[in-house]
Amino acid sequence: MNTRIQFTAKVEQGKIIIPDEYISMIGDDLIEVIIKPKSSRLMDRLAENPLTAVGWRDLSRDDIHE
Question: pTM for the full model?
């Protein structure tokens, strides 16, 4: 049975440290690691971590076309 677990981990001395809350879920199973590099594109970084602005409100369709 395959179980997919996704988390962010730190690499220490070349080893991926699995958070304690996931160790019991993994057990002695085979572990496949997929490393997703951080994007260096500004728009990709903003999509993942949007900026917040005081007083910002979402525009309605009518507001956009005015």
Answer: 0.40
**Distance between CA atoms of 42 and 35, rounded to whole angstroms?**
20
Cβ atoms of 48 and 41 closer than 8 Å: no
CA-to-CA dists, residue 39 to 34, 50, 54, angstroms: 15, 14, 27
- Residue 60 tokens read as 């309605």
Contact present, 14 and 4 (Cβ < 8 Å):
no
List the one residue out of 15, 56, 14, 25 whose CA is nearest residue 6.
Answer: 25
The stretch 7-22 carries a mean pLDDT of 82
Residue 24 and residue 26: Cα distance in Å, rounded? Answer: 6
